[in-house]
Amino acid sequence: MKGKLKGALVVLTILVLLFSMVACSGKEEPEAAATTEKKPFNINEVKVAMLAPGLNHPFFQAVANDFEREAKKLGIQYSILDAQLDTNRQIAAMEDLITQKVDMIFLIPTDGTALGPAVLQANKAGVPVITVSRNVTEGDIVAFVGSDDLVIGMTAGNFIATKLNGKGKVVEISGTPGTTTAQDRSRGFRMVIDTYPGLELVASQTANYHRGQAMSVMENIIQAHDHFDAIFAANDEMAGGVLQALKGAGRKGVILVGCNTQADAYVALQAGEMHGDITFPPEAGSEALKIGIAYLKGEPYPPYKMIPVELVTQHNLERMKHKFY
Q1: 209 in a domain, yes or no?
Q2: What is the sign, positive or negative, of the torsion defined by CA atoms of 220, 224, 227, 230?
Q3: Residue ranges making up the domain that contains 81
Q4: DSSP 165-220
Q5: What is the rounded distance in angstroms from the CA atom of residue 289 to the CA atom of residue 71?
Q6: Residue 86 forms part of a structural domain
Q7: Over the stretch 293-322, which tens digit does the pLDDT of each residue have?
Q8: Rounded to two decimals, what is the model's pTM?
Q9: Are 274 and 286 contained in the same domain?
């Protein structure tokens, strides 16, 4: 009996020792985990970059200025790189930023198709990308921030159709073919024009969002067509070139609609030389940065942020004056 009791006590002692060892090892686990805890978010250490197509363009400069104001307000480290309307330059700049492992890239692509592979490279390297004002055709982005270009085109089409009472000859001067803005504005415009049997699209040509090219293109259209009633120029730079060509040819009474609310468009609207303009808010720069910081903090954010657009005419010009830059 004593032998059995002694054996039981030995077994019990071993079990107690084993339990103590397990309990002790369990206490050490939180201490080990604490050494690998994620570093706290420090906004002053965040490094971001914006890639702009061309800072000599008033709209892109306005977006960059808006981005810069927000970056300074937040106290983050930032850079703004100018592609000077060169797609290869923008691709090379993006590859450099990927190598540098910046915390985020804010991309306004010169060409949404051509920049797609660069976005895929960023995805592979783990560098998040937000597209601003224009989108890309491939690759994963954190978010897109801009305005609905389809709505811009439709707004222009509806304005012209109303002004012409559904009858007349119409000209379209479209933007850079590889950009989503140009594609969607043109598509929206035609969606409306095509619903009016009395409206005829007599010419549609690209001027690559460039003032000088728009002037040259418009001069050729004027030579080819004795008469047309309205023109939609997909941005104000091109609208300015179109207006120069119309003045040079002595063409009066043609309805002209632009987009972007640039300062010279305000002057043209005031003088009655332009009849409508559509806002394309540069606030996309600051809104994109706010979303980017939310993403980096691990906070909720919208994957698409659409800033509403508005039609400006002579009737609401003074009330909308603050929209022009």
Answers
A1: yes
A2: negative
A3: 43-146+282-306
A4: TT-EEEEEEE--TTSHHHHHHHHHHHHHHTT-TTEEEEEEEE-TT-HHHHHHHHHH
A5: 7
A6: yes
A7: 999 999 999 999 999 999 999 999 999 999
A8: 0.85
A9: no
